[in-house]
Write a structure and sequence with these properties.
By secondary structure, this protein is α+β, with helices and mostly antiparallel strands. The protein has helices spanning about 5-15, 25-35, 45-60, 70-80, 105-110, 155-165, and strands at about 85, 90-95, 115-125, 130-135, 140-145, 145-150. A hairpin with a 4-residue loop joins strand 4 and strand 5 (about 140-145). The chain starts with a helix and ends in a 10-residue tail after the last helix.
Length: about 170
């Protein structure tokens, strides 16, 4: 059960992002989102969101830190099913993707963070890279048994994945 603070953050996210483009995205990220079918106020079909929640519940039996927490649910609802591409970077596949979620990546991330987390995307670059978000919104890439910070929130994480690392993310190029 999410805390009141988590639920409030998720409600705030959903309310803020149901409006027209609010300046959250860099122009190239916004272009990639629109090319993939994103529009302001977009929401994943409820059945697909429930499938993701079921997958999180199954994964949580293997990795107790996994949770379909409110911020992850909001991110998957808004971006779920999108295949995001910007020239020069590997595609980002937001759940549901054709690939399966990697329990080992979730376990690796759970050892690094002391909060609930949820896999929300995969990077399709030939190396298994899973993108997770934590219950406070931090977005992380799990690759090769290591956890790399992408950003303090999902939008920053997507931006880092699509445009490359920024000095403050610490993500290797």
């Amino acid at each position: 059960m999410p805390s009141e603070a988590e639920a409030a953050r998720a409600q705030s996210w959903q309310a803020a992002h149901a409006q027209a483009d609010d300046g959250r995205f860099e122009p190239r990220v916004l272009s990639a989102l629109r090319a993939a079918g994103w529009v302001p106020g977009r929401a994943l079909e409820p059945g697909l969101l429930e499938d993701w929640e079921d997958d999180m519940a199954a994964l949580s039996r293997l990795v107790p830190a996994v949770s379909a927490h409110p911020l992850a649910r909001a991110a998957v609802s808004e971006f779920g099913g999108l295949h995001l591409e910007v020239a020069g970077t590997p595609p980002v596949l937001v759940y549901p993707a054709d690939e399966h979620l990697d329990p080992e990546a979730a376990l690796t991330a759970s050892r690094e963070v002391d909060e609930a987390l949820a896999p929300i995307a995969l990077v399709a670059d030939g190396w298994p890279t899973t993108v997770v978000t934590t219950s406070t919104g931090r977005t992380l890439a799990v690759r090769g048994g290591r956890v790399h910070p992408l950003g303090p929130d999902v939008v920053s994480g997507l931006t880092s994945l699509l445009l490359g690392p920024t000095p403050d993310t610490g993500v290797p190029a």
